[in-house]
Each structure stands twice: as C-alpha cells, then as structure tokens.
Amino acid sequence: MEYIFDGFKQALLLLLNADDSVISAIKTTILSSSVSIVLALLVGFPLGFVLGFFNFKLKRFLRLIVDTSLSFPTVAVGLILYALISNRGPFGEFGLLFTIKALILGQFILALPIAIALFANLVESISKKQLLLIKSFHLNSIKLIMIIIHELRFSLISVIALVYGRIVAEVGVAMIVGGNIKYDTRTITTAISLETNKGEFASGIALALVLISIAFILNCIIYKLKRR
Q: What is the pLDDT of residues 66-91, one digit of tens each?
C-alpha cells in the first residue's frame, strides 16, 4: 500500500507545482470537451425535438439508427473517422488528423446521438394532458418549443451532464484521431493511460484526481440549479 500513498503524495505535488504536462492535458480536455458538447447540443437538441415530438414515416427507422449508434464502440468510431481524415481518406486534404480539431470532431460524433436520443425520450415522456394543456394556448411554433423546453429544464440539465461525462471520459477516439501528442492533443484520459503504462503512477493519479474533481464540480452545479 505504500506505493499508493506515495503516488498520491507525488500527485498532489504535481498539481500544486502546476506540472506542465499535467496542466497541458487539463487545458486540452477542457477546450475540446467544451467545444464538442456545445456543438452536440446545438445540433442534437433540435433533431431530438423533431424525432420525439413529430410523427412521420421514417421516424422508427431513424430512431433505430440513433439508438444503435449509442452502443458503437468508441474505438470503432475512431477507426472510421481516422480512415476518413487520414492522408489517404476523402477528407485528408484538410489536415485534420492528430489535431485538436480532429479531437473535437470525434467527441462531437460520440456525443451527438446521445443528445438526440435522450432529448427525444424527454419530449416523448411529456404526458398527453400536459401536452394538450400547452397546445390549448394556441402559441406559435417557437413559443410552443420554448415552453416544452422550459418544462423539461431539470431533466435537460441531467442530459447535458451525461453527454459531458461521455465526452470527458472518452479514450478510444481521442487516442486514435488525436494521436496523444504531448502539449498538443493529449487529454486527461489518454495521459492517464500512457503514464500508467510507463509506470508514472503519480502523474496518472494527479490526472485522475482532476477528472474526478471535474465530475464532482459538474454534479454540484447541477444540484444547485435544480434547487433553484
């Protein structure tokens, strides 16, 4: 057990001394995850609303595709994305591979189906009486949507937290398309994997503590918002 306690001591020292590699991984994680979740929510919520609120011919088929994409292995998603943006791929000319842009794109692809599916479920969960009451006001489409979103606001916070957790904890896509380049595309999760394999237990613990702290802070914010 001594090596574990020593690892925690060294990890705290790395955080207190603001170790360059640790701080770089934290910054990359916060930057990529923040941008990707904003994009995923901006695209996913409207699509999820349409999928959950309206009835149309291809609804079941589209729902099946969205639900199936939730279980896609992240490594498989990373491999497909790698093939598309590599030098020999159709989008290789944009030079996205092993950049933060590729990292954001991969995280966006992972988060999008979650945002669509969960928001569609929330919209479908509205009771018929509640929906009829809202429609009885004869509001225009924009106001109708805003009222429904307002009614679902507490559940939406939980959805955002779940999507963000999926992005932050992701390893496969970040490793494949990001390349795990030190001081550039290395995230907290990829750094933990690398440092632990190298025997740098302290660095792994330091980054794990940061990851746990992010999750804790996020849940505290959600709790306060719900209380309000």
A: 888 887 888 888 899 999 999 888 99
Which position has the token pair 């440092």?
Answer: 195
CA distance 86 to 111: 22
Cα separation, 155 vs 168, whole angstroms: 20
CA distance 38 to 53: 22
Q: Whole-angstrom distance between the N-terminal and C-terminal Cα of the chain?
A: 43
Lookup result for tokens 């159709």: 90
CA atoms within 13 A on the CB side of 61: 3
The string of DSSP letters for 132-182 reads HHHHTT---HHHHHHHHHHHTHHHHHHHHHHHHHHHHT--HHHHHHHTT-T
* Three-state DSSP class for residue 18: coil
Q: How many residues does the chain have?
A: 228
Q: Which amino acid is at 77?
A: V
Structure tokens at 13: 């020292």
Radius of gyration of the chain (CA): 21
Residue located via tokens 């669509």: 116
Position 50 scores a pLDDT of 86
State how far the Cα of 207 lies from the Cα of 184, in Å rounded to an integer. Answer: 16
